[in-house]
Amino acid sequence: MWSEEQLVGWLQECGALLEGHFLLTSGLHSDRYVEKFRLLERPSLVTKVCAEIVRRFTDEPIDAVLGPAVGGIVLAYEVARQLGCRYLFAETEEGQRVLRRGFSISEGERVLLVEDVVTTGGSVKATLELALAHGAQVVGVAILVDRGETPLQLPVRTEVLLRLPLKAYSPEECPLCQKGIPLERRGSKR
Ligand SMILES: [Zn+2]
After folding, report:
1. Ligand 1 centroid to 6 CA: how many Å?
2. Which of 16, 57, 136, 176 would be a feasible disulfide site paired with 131, CB 3.0-4.6 Å?
3. How far, in Å, CA of 22 to CA of 155, rounded?
4. How, if at all, do strands 17-23 and 29-34 pair?
5. Is 121 helix (H, G, I), strand (E, B) or coil?
6. Cα–Cα distance measured from residue 55 to residue 140, given in angstroms and rounded to the nearest whole number
C-alpha cells in the first residue's frame, strides 16, 4: 500500500524533512528543507520509493532510466534494477547537462527520467532536453518530491510521489531574518 502520508512519515523518520531557516539555491529563504540524502542513504527506503515509481509506469516498456547527478543516480539505478533495464546519469559541465563516461542513448530508445527533489524544475527540464536531443522517446518523468509553489509542468507524462509546496521568502521579506534566526546554507551549490 502506498500513500503520500507514508512517504512523509519515512522522510520525517530518517531526518530528511528539516525545519529551521535555510538559504535555497535560488537565493530565497525558507523555513523548511528536504535533505534528500537522509533518504537516499537508506537502501531499504530507496527500494520502497522506487517500487512505487516502477508501479506507476508498469504499462510502459522502458529501455533505460536516466537521472541527473547526484541524487538521480541513486534513484535511476534502483528503478532500473527493479525494471531489469539499463540506467545512466547526466552530469553538469559548464552549466550544461551532458552525458559523459561513454553513456549514450540510441534513437527511439524508451527512456524514463527520475529525479529526487525539484523546486523550479531546472535540472529535470535540462535532463529532459538532453534526452530528447539524443533522440530518446521519453516515456515520462518520475519525481520524488515537488517543492514548487505551483506544480511542475512538463511536456511529457509526469508522476510526482509527493507535493510539498515551498514557502520561500526574499531575504528582505524573510520573517525568520527579522527574528534574527541564523541562516543555514544547504544544497550542492555552496
Ligand atoms: Zn531569512
Report:
1. 30
2. 136
3. 31
4. antiparallel
5. coil
6. 13
Please state, as a whole number, how many other Cβ atoms lie within 10 Å of the Cβ of residue 18: 16
Pair 151, 123: CB distance under 8 Å: no
Contact present, 57 and 31 (Cβ < 8 Å): no
Distance 164 CA to ligand 1 centre (A): 19
- Hey, is 138 helix, strand or coil? strand
Sign of the C-alpha dihedral, residues 148, 153, 154, 156? positive
Measured in Å, residue 30 CA sits from the centre of ligand 1 at 7
For 45-71, what is each residue's pLDDT tens digit? 999 999 999 999 999 999 999 999 999
CB atoms within 10 A of CB 161: 16
Average pLDDT over residues 129-134: 96
Which residues 6+ apart lie within 8 Å of 34 measured at CB? 11, 16, 17, 18, 117, 145, 147, 164
Ligand 1 centroid distance, CA of 181 (Å): 8
Q: Which three cell numbers stand for residue 6?
A: 507514508
In which residue are the cell numbers 539555491 written?
25
